[in-house]
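Section 5.1 Outputs to date
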Amino acid sequence: MSDLIDAIALAVDRRKELPEETVLLIGEPKTLSYQDLQKQISTLLYHKTIRTIRVPKWIAKIGSWVLCHLPFGPKPFIRPWMINLADDHYELNISRAKKILGWTPKHTLEKTLPIMIDDLKKDPISWYRFNQLQMPKKMQKKLEGA
């Protein structure tokens, strides 16, 4: 968020020099793949890479559809339409923001992820609450037993 705020502040500071309408991409120039994220998260959490299994999209869509239509339990985040987008790769070209505003991000997910995981490990209950996420039942039971 601080990178976004910096970009907005620069745009406001330079508003008189900018065209009436200016479109800029603000974000990280490097996009981590889901595989890269999974490897980094599993290494940070468990000190090993957890093997992931690729599932054909048609099977994943059926599974997602079934989970979305179960009459019990919370509705899952993943929806069938999301499956088609799962392997899309969105690299941002932020060169205009660099040129026009002199802006580049100071933070990256790759460098911030270890901090996020460290916060999760230190205080899982507060971490899940702060991020408005539901703690996995397995983790709840483990913490209750501790």
